[in-house]
């Protein structure tokens, strides 16, 4: 599949309709929605304050970053591999955060979170990490055709 690019007034290359695979757009949207779910789950499950703030901040960041990538693809720009790599790292943190906070909260005699929230974070973090890593990998290895930079 060939891809043609144009430059918008900011100098950023834009892809035409054939450029980005449609799947990357929808996977970015799914990751964004899972990030939103992670952000709001402390409202449904009991959790320590540190775990609540972690979920709200990290889930919100994932929601915004993956949503930004979805927006980019929808408007014809290339997938941002840097943004999706950051999302993958944040998703991995979501996966391990309940266990990282468990030691701190255990000294206070509290549970870090309900078991449902812990496994919600583990499953959501794993799914987001895999999807975000795939999007970043696919965008980074995509073959771009056209003229080389600096040639006519």
TrEMBL record:
Region (Disordered): 1-22
Domain of life from the UniProt record: Archaea
Residue stretches making up the SPW repeat-containing integral membrane domain: 26-133
Transmembrane spans: 26-45, 51-71, 83-102, 122-143
Keywords: Membrane, Transmembrane, Transmembrane helix
Cross-referenced InterPro entries: SPW
Pfam families (UniProt xref): SPW (PF03779)
Signal peptide feature range: none
Composition skew (Basic and acidic residues), residue ranges: 11-22
Keyword rRNA processing: no
Protein name per Swiss-Prot or TrEMBL: SPW repeat-containing integral membrane domain-containing protein
Lineage: Archaea, Methanobacteriati, Methanobacteriota, Stenosarchaea group, Halobacteria
């Amino acid at each position: 599949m060939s891809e043609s690019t144009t430059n918008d007034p900011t100098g950023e290359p834009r892809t035409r309709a054939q450029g980005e695979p449609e799947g990357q757009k929808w996977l970015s949207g799914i990751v964004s929605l899972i990030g939103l779910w992670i952000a709001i789950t402390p409202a449904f499950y009991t959790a320590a304050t540190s775990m609540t703030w972690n979920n709200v901040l990290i889930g919100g960041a994932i929601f915004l970053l993956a949503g930004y990538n979805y927006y980019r693809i929808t408007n014809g720009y290339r997938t941002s591999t840097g943004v999706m790599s950051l999302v993958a790292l944040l998703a991995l943190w979501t996966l391990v955060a309940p266990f990282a906070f468990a030691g701190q909260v255990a000294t206070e005699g509290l549970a870090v979170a309900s078991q449902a929230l812990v496994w919600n974070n583990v499953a959501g973090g794993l799914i987001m990490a895999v999807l975000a890593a795939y999007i970043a990998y696919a965008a980074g290895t995509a073959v771009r055709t056209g003229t080389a930079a600096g040639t006519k």
